Amino acid sequence: MNVLFFEVTLLLYFLGTVLFLSQLAGRLEGVSQSAFVVAGVGFFFHTLALVSRMIEAGHIPLTSMHEALSFFSWALVLVFLVVELRLRLHILGSFILPLAFISLISAAALPKEIKALAPIFRNVWMHVTLSLLGTVAFAIAFVAGLMYLIQEHLLKSKHRNVLYHKLPPLDFLDDLNGKAISFGFPLLTLGIITGALFAEFSRGSFLNWNAEQIGALGTWLFYLVVLLGRVTVGWRAKRAAYLTVVGFAGVIFTLVGVLVKGQHPFA
Amino acid sequence: MNIIVVGLNHRTASVELREHLAVSEARLPEALARLKRWPGVTEGVILSTCNRVELYAVVKDTSHGFDSLREYLLKMAPAISHDDLAPYLYYFDGSHAIRHLFRVTASLDSMVVGEPQILGQVKEAFEAALTQKTTGLVLNKVLKKAISVGKRVRTETGIAENAVSVSYAAVELAKKIFQNLAGKTVLLIGAGEMAKLAARHLVQAGMQNVLITTRNYELAVDVAKRFHGLPVPFDDFPREMAGADIVICSTGASAYLIGPEDVQRALHTRRNRPMFLIDISVPRNIDPEVGRLDNAYLYNIDDLQGQVEKNLEQRRQEAMKAEDLVQSEVGLIVRWIKSLEVLPTIVALRRKAGDIQRGEVNRILAKFGAVSPRQRELVEDLASAITNKLLHGALVALKTEADSTNGPLFAEIAQRLFDLEKEIAAAAAKDETEQTSTVLPDGPP
User: Fold this and answer.
1) Are both A95 and A149 inside the same structural domain?
2) Nearest residue on chain B to A166, judged by CA atoms?
């Protein structure tokens, strides 16, 4: 059952992505409305998929890369829906939904079977949830940064197109960027701490310097610097936008590292 | 019954003449009441703005109506002679009058196409007429439609999008950099007219903190008063710049007043919060190199002017779409009005036939004495079949001719042939009492 729901979700996110991208092209107000509805319905099926999978598995379904990516996509759409309902930005979906779709289709490409869980991993979902929610926040920061850089370029080059009209003001994007990182950083910190604790319990050492652990620590340090830079010496605006776009690339790299290398219990 | 308009606007008449004819809000009720009583006028609306004075009326006879409304205008402005006024008036009737009203309401006839005020002004004119009860079936419908067409044009075409003046273009840009202008500060360097205008628009858009500096400190103090702002000594402005989110520069200086190092310093002090610099002075006062700095957005007069040109061109294109929309709506309402001309005749004909039919059936049944329900039904069917078949051709002809210019002629012929004048007069009297007794709507939808 969860696979069917999953596939319906995939289809709806694809449709939503197409609609959201096409609304960038024109003035049609109705498109962003229907894109939002499609995303909402997709989210509903996604929730059904996650819940039914949890019932089938008998534990929280966050024990494989497939499940992690699916959850990441779900949380991303959730944040999008909440932000969109409050702020009515219209353009946010054109950036976030493609990301959610890419994440979900990556999940679809991975093995979907429900793994029997060793007792030691019973509570590993805490580590995964925290890390993923941190990543969702960084994804929002990434999207805000990307929109900032586009709008900044359009303002500098004095070139006004559809995007110029649809993108929100610069200081709003900078603010969103800052808030997203201030949310994401504590979550990632807790995610790393819980991860280290589980590593300690399962393998007897909380740190064994494998690629994804180094990647995670590198990401953590990077965002720490970005956050401190903003608070202390005014690393905001364009610089902050650049850094968060680059930083998210690092996050993706770490995730791929987790996937490719076999050290992590997910792989 | 015909809808006509007589008026003048910014294109046909000088402002002096328009001033003479303009009807102030205070005088409007009395003017409307007089228009309603004016010979030949059955419904009337007065649209008086600074750019136009127009009388819309429903009249029995078009050419008499035109003369009558011209006389009305002359009566309202005793200082103006017939010869002073007549050459500047325009006259439209029927679909042309409706189209004119729709174009006016949609801001297609405005000095600046797409300007937002006219829609509200038409609404107010209509509301005043409703209060004075000077409109009826026709103008109520036409004005409501005009207002909805005006709204549709604004939402469905880009006619009202994007700034068409340099100072508004500056505000629009500011809103792309700053989400909320309320807490932001603008620094005016020099007090040229355009700079003051831009500052005024920014204040209207919610900006509260205004700093002003000019070489002549007295002038700065004077201008500051008008904006509830703060004057700043001219030598201090490079330091004050750090606190300014928007800088508008318009001095007569022949060299650059602000260089990249000044702005760099200000940005550093502001911890890289973005700055929007507008240079509307010629020759330029801000070194163009400033535009290369991160987080500094520099626009000069040509950048803004270029944007305005593009926006104007876009409005012209959108105006063509709006014209199409107006045209199709005019078609719909004209058909409705035409049907109105034959409708009373159709109703009266049906009613008269029904009355005769019922009378004859009752007369014949009374002669029969006792009849079964089945027999009664048969007699009634026979009577209605005869009347319906007899009238069918006439009714179809009336309905089809309603769309053509022959509508009123056919209606009159039918009235004569079937002797309907009495029925129509009775129905009209009934309508009149109903209309005055029903409560008027609150306002346009």
Assistant:
1) no
2) B176
